[in-house]
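Appendix B. Raw example, untouched.
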Amino acid sequence: MKALHRLSIIPLLVALSVSCSDSNEPDIVTIADFAGTWTASRFEITDPSGTVLSESVDLIGDAFGSLVITVVSNGSFTGMFKPSVVSESMSVAGTISLAGSTLTIAFSDGLDAAIAGAFELDGDQLVVHGTNLTFDYDDQTITGASVLLVMNR
């Protein structure tokens, strides 16, 4: 009878070991995870000194602009940026790179300043919190700016 009882436990142990996974492991993000076409829904610049911008400006929402980039699996991208209704669209190109928990979007064409900082990639939404950046805005330079960039694939 004991042998039969032991044998009945084996399927239970197998089922438990198959259904358990190590959920404590963080998802590892690679450059290939960024492949696709991304459209910005928010591109907000904050001037910490308040000398150039007295409040944050969203170059997409406040200025009716647009930013669309297409990223390939090696991290290079091309796209178009239109900062406001009155501005001309400009081509943008560059690379996306990862160093630990920091994402850098470096522009080789179009925008001058790279955006670098902590990020969250949740399925088809990317949020980048850039910090301590330098941006030209309305022919003035903002030093130490923070940027919030939200893009959807």
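End of appendix B.
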